[in-house]
Amino acid sequence: MESLTLSDVEQKYYSDLFVYCDTDNTKKVASNGRVLDLFRAAQLPSEVVLQITELCGATRLGHFGRSQFYIALKLIAIAQSGLPLRVESLNSVKDLPLPRFVVGKNEAEARHAALYQDSDNQGLYPASATSVIPRPPGRGLQNKKGPPTSTSLPVHEVIQPHGPPVDTQPEATSPVVSPHQSPPTSPLSWRKHKRQHSGGNVDRQQSVPAAGAVWTQFREPQSGPVPGEGMWSSHSPPLPSQESWVSFTADTPPSSTIPAIHPSSVQESTTIRTVASAAMTNEIQRQSSAYDDPWKITEEQRQYYINQFKSIQPDLTGFIPGSAAKEFFTKSKLPILELSHIWELSDFDKDGALTLDEFCAAFHLVVARKNGYDLPEKLPESLMPKLIDLDDSAEVPEPTAEVGYSASPVEVTPNKSPSMPSLNQAWPEMNQSNEDTAIVHPVPIRMTPSKIHMQEMELKRTGSDHNHPTSPLLAKPPELNEETKLTASMKFVAANAVGDGYSSSDSFTSDQEPITRQRSQSGTSPEALKVVAPPPPPPRPHASHSRSSSLDMNRTFAAASAPGQQQQNNAIAFPPAVPPRPLIHFNQFQAFAASEKPTSLPEAKGASGPFAPPPKPVRRRLKSEDELRPEDEQHGPQKSNIIAAVLATQPSIPRSIGKDKKAIQASIRRNKETNTVLARLNSELQQQLKDLLEERISLEVQLEQLRPFSHL
Amino acid sequence: MAVCIAVIAKENYPLYIRSVPTQNELKFHYTVHTSLDVVEEKISAVGKSIGDQRELYLGLLYPTEDYKVYGYVTNSKVKFVIVVDSSNTSLRDNEIRSMFRKLHNSFTDVMCNPFHNPGDQIQSRTFDGIVSGMMVQTA
Predict the structure, then answer these.
(1) Is residue A68 helix, strand or coil?
(2) In what ranges is there compositional bias, type Basic and acidic residues (chain A) (predicted)?
């Protein structure tokens, strides 16, 4: 190719660019990836780029060798300054500004160009001004460190313009920077700028002071995570391990470059910000802060995403349905195929809706794609939905409050279908409507790492405790006679067994009190998961229960039939459990009581199984309280047998959950609650015992009084 | 390990078809097309019973000397067809079933994507990945 003479500055700049593009380190760069991005970022029409490629000989060779690359860069600079593309102009043009590569196009860019084209020194800045890609390393070096290194550390844009004033600072930081002699990580700097933009909020024409402030602001969060070089080095493939950029910039902020730069950089930062903002028309584009690290979402970005989320779906714990998300992301003008891929990546639980976390991840990916970054094949870790902790703590208390501890009869929420998509989307409604509704049968819920999901599952799970067999048990009336007392306690257990069958293995988790429930809800998600996972899915299995297909039920039935409880056979689908009496006193267990009632009712309403529509059991309970009371005695002995049988079958209430600490804690909590429940039951039963004893004594006295008469 | 996997829409046009490239792909297209007749026949045969009861997995549709064709139809009449090499005798029915199950799951995921219009060709990379995992690895 024609010989190319480059100035020192150009030489350094180009070599950095080359190294940046030369990911394979083969000293020749294929015409793809970085190179194309670079050329694209040069903001030249594609035919010009093609022409350049051809001119520099890359098309001949099939790849960009170093010289071709340099020629191409120079031609880009020529084209950008408006000169016709000629091979001769390569060497003839004097004082050619360095090629500019921008992320976004705008007039500010031109302004920058003008700003930086006055002198050689500043010739390097056009690139920097445009916020992107390689910072003239030499420049940076000059700025940052006295002795320029050949490989040049990427100079942060901000720093660059302030070469002279900043010289001392660079010296100070040079020792820090020196280890990072790796090629400039332009994408990083690019990203940083973007970040800044996101922080700076789109305002193209920001006032200088504001710009400076933003700049500072931008730097600070950036410096936060950056100190660890290792962090930077763990970039994903698109970002080569070019820590120098990152560390460099990271170092600079703390090391006083900011203050020094602040006054002088204000202007530049303004321009940078404006320049760097991608040429996206909608808000998404404005907030195209590049992802740090490389996919991490900054605070400002996250805030922006959250605001966007709110605009679509005011409830932060809710979901954005697929259609709304589709409209929203279509506005970003990305091709549908890419949007589809982004969706696949970000919809972590595959439910057809986006939670806040998923939405942030999707938005972030859109932003990244807009800035030219290729989409990953798998969701980067930093975008995984579990990162939504920030919102979780805020959001969770609300749902817990809402989830209510429905004291009133619960009705099976229509949402409780086994289908996951509807299930997920039903959660918000469920949470809100939980006060009186929703018998929360444990429903199979797809396990997601999302804490929100976990929390919701937890909520749902604990909500289901209303229905829990144990809850009504607490309501055992004091009037139970001894047997019934005993049976009541056994029933309690039996009820738990039943509860196991249809609610969850965590039988004793039912908390009558909202407080305890809240405790469990604020508990860990694994608890909910655990709770949800083992129990069988709702309606159908329940039905199977009623058909006594479960082993427990079979045994129960067997035990029941042994004493000859035909009446109760059907009903015994539920452990002989609670005589309706207790239910009277403890309204909150109506739901459960309702389910319990069928068992206690010999009328074998249990034909429909315990899972008959809850209102029915409730009604039954209410009206048959009285009838059941006398029946209790009969049921008692029978029930005791059954209860004993059921008790035997009672699966260990704390089912071995010990997978992780959270689960253990959850089970501990559950057990504590169970303990309280049992303690209450115990006290009630004691009371009943006392009453019965009194009764007995009075009867005996009466008998004694009568006996003399009988003898008479 | 399949040599060809195809997803056919309700209207019997292909949504996705992928074969081991070394072989004559047209042959597989033709095979899949002819297997549709068998699928229809099987569906209609069970048509009397309630749709719910209908087995989704159709089993071996028909064998030829070179390969065997298995079919699976969803409740929305989307058909999955897997062509396996006859020489691959180690493939048991269970494995085919699990392959179909995986296909069905990833197909569901594709459908859940709001950017995917039902009736479009399936262009999801995840789906491609899953299918590649099931294809014979030689190609």
Answers:
(1) helix
(2) 623-636
> Is the CB of A86 inside 8 Å of chain B's CB atoms?
no
Do B83 and B67 touch, CB atoms closer than 8 A?
Answer: yes
Q: How far is CA A284 from CA A334, A366, A380, A428, A617, in A?
A: 11, 8, 20, 27, 53
A264 vs A115: CA distance, rounded Å: 13
Place of tokens 């997920």: A424
- Please say if the pLDDT value at position A609 is more than 70: no
Q: Is the pLDDT of residue A2 over 80?
A: no
Q: Let me know: does B133 contact B15? Beta carbons within 8 Å.
A: no
pLDDT tens by residue, A387-433: 444 444 444 444 343 443 434 444 444 444 444 444 444 444 444 44
Tell me whether strands A353-354 and A320-321 are parallel, antiparallel or unpaired: antiparallel
CB contact under 8 Å between A352 and B116, yes or no, is: no
Specify the residue for token string 């506005």: A331
Quickly state the pLDDT bin for B123 (edges 50, 70, 90): confident
Interface contact flag, B114 A350, Cβ < 8 Å: no
How far apart CA A350 and CA A336 sit, in angstroms, is 18
Residue B60, phi-psi category: left (phi > 0), alpha (psi -120 to 50), beta (remainder): beta
What pairs with residue B135 in β-bridges?
A: B2
Check residue A32 and give its pLDDT.
58
The mean pLDDT of B36-52, rounded to a whole number, is 73
Here the ipTM equals 0.82
Give A294→chain B minimum CA distance, Å. 22
Distance of residue A313 Cα from the nearest chain B Cα, in angstroms: 17
Mean pLDDT on B41-48: 73
State the nearest Cα–Cα gap between A104 and chain B, in angstroms: 27
pLDDT of residue B76: 87
Task: Check residues A529 and A666 and name the one with the higher pLDDT.
Answer: A666
Report which of A659, A625, A425 is spatially closest to residue A529, judged by C-alpha positions: A659
> Is residue A326 less than 8 Å (CB to CB) from chain B?
yes
- H or E segment to which residue A34 belongs: helix A33-41
Shortest distance, CA A146 to any CA of chain B (angstroms): 50
- The one-letter code for the residue type at A640 is S
Residue A530, pLDDT above cutoff 50: no
Which residues in chain B have Cβ-Cβ distances shorter than 8 Å to A421? 112
Q: Which residues of A97-129 are buried (b: 16+ CB within 10 A; e: fewer)?
A: bbbbbbbbebebbeebbebbbeeebbbbbbbbb
Q: Do B113 and A377 touch (CB under 8 A)?
A: no
